[in-house]
Amino acid sequence: MDNRPLESRRRSAIENIYPLSPMQEGLLFHSIATPDEGVYVPQIVLQLRGAVDPQIMHDCWSEMVSRHAVLRTTFHWEERDEPFQVVHSDAGLAWSQLDWSGIDAEERQKRLGALLSTNRRQAFDLKTAPLIRLQWIDYGGENSRLVLQYHHIILDGWSAGRIVEDAFRTYQRRCGSTRPPLAAPRPYADYIAWLKSRKREATRAFWTDYTTKIEMPCRMTRDATGGEADFSSHHLTCDPAVSTQAAKLCRDMGITPNILLQAALAIVIARKTGSRHVVFGATTAGRPPELQGVENMVGLFINTLPVCIDVENGSLAPWLQRLQQRQSACAEHDYLPLREIQAGRGDLFDCLLVFENYPVPRDITAEATFAVTGVEVDEWTHYPLTLFAVADAAKISISAHYDRRRIAEQETEAFLHELGATIGEMAGGIAMVPHVSAEDARTANLAKPALPSGTETPSDQPLPATAWTETEKRIARIWAEVLKVDAQRNTDNFFDLGGHSLLAARVVNRVRREFAINFPVKVLFDRPVLAAFAAFIDALKATAAPVDEHNAIEI
């Protein structure tokens, strides 16, 4: 039995501690605020054909946990004002095996869908490593599936693919391959150090100038009507001839397929909103080329950034090339957090484009006993409309994942159809940008439902000010310390005073300590008015057991 003090045991098990990247901060907030929505927990389903020894596969993935620090990382936000991540010296492996060998193909497909849905609803505990789960499913007849689920806060898609490659190469070696051992990976901590070395003043100025034409948010969906998110999806695959033509167009014009898809999306959004100044979100790779070996590092490097496009009625080629040049300029400043870019303006967009890039091996060398014959990815974000795109010479496919509270099924289908048609138009060799005019705006179905005259939404209704309670005064002091501005009335709103997601987490942490109670960050989002928030705290104090502060990690 280890009789050392708890603090000493914790210190000895810690390998490293460092801050979060901007994207990690955003994902941490969403995980705290909505832990059960099933967003940002991707699942990769690998179709395997051939003999697989599940024990060897298990051992290979255990080795991956030892090899990659991000798989031994936990996240903490209550012990300090700023959240931080802790790399532990060791961690277990969440592994399970299922036998579906005696089940027909149709039933297996149903079970797989149900399994992915169940997995999605099982939230990760961000304070417990590893933040990955693996399930090996025996389909019988030397066919199987390997399901890898992970929290996005530790890995992006490219990194997940690199780890799968490492695991399969390790499997080969354990089965007698003469391949040399894998080289030691460069730690994710080096990327965090690189981020800290950036001088942000010029980058902030760049994004201020870049978004200057966006006078109001670009909305493709309605406000939610309440309740939990209700996600669904639709899929579009372009005709193979269109994919071939699109690949040729990109080569001839010196643009990437990503730019072609962004251009098509901008045109469709311009038609829907009636504005030529379009903005939507897009993920960027975020791997700085000056960081040696960055292409082989694993962790979360991607960032979500606004894409601002002026849809011009003119020649197609120079317009697309200008978009490519603008993206190249953005790449030099792609590390700034979205919350800083949007500071004081609210969310600029509700539609996100994700250009999929999972380098999962579809073929293993002849030394292996199995091959990867297919890959499926199940992934959801908090945005009400997310487009996951794959584009190469062989195929252009787009999956629209949407919240049915915010945009209807028929609208999503029509949106995808128009997007596919616009891609086909441009790939077909037209000389001019597909036409956009104010008359094209079709916003009736996407607009927020009108309220009866004189009706205010709950958030618009003014609350009467009353005398301050002692709890309100204590909370107001915390708000002032965090926001650097004083609340003037107990009807003041946290977010109107300049609050945002990470500041909300900081306030909640301080309130928890101040009153020795525990509650989720979501409470502040549901009750942002000082009086309402304080009333909740008073009610909780009357019923809650005191918080056990000994569970905090000691540094």
Give a verbal description of the structure:
InterPro entries: ACP-like_sf, CAT-like_dom_sf, Condensation_dom, PKS_PP-bd, PP-bd_ACP, Ppantetheine_attach_site. This protein is of the alpha+beta class and 555 residues long. It folds into three domains: 6-190, 2-Layer Sandwich (Chloramphenicol Acetyltransferase); 203-364 and 384-440, Nonribosomal peptide synthetase, condensation domain (Chloramphenicol Acetyltransferase), CATH 3.30.559.30; 470-551, Non-ribosomal Peptide Synthetase Peptidyl Carrier Protein, Chain A. The chain has 16 helices and 14 strands. It has a six-stranded mixed β-sheet. Strands 5-6-7-2-12 form a five-stranded mixed β-sheet, covered by helices on one side. Helix 13 (470-483) packs across helix 16 (530-543). The protein is globular and about 70 Å long. The relative contact order is 0.14. The model is unreliable at 1-9, 441-463 and 548-555 (pLDDT under 50).
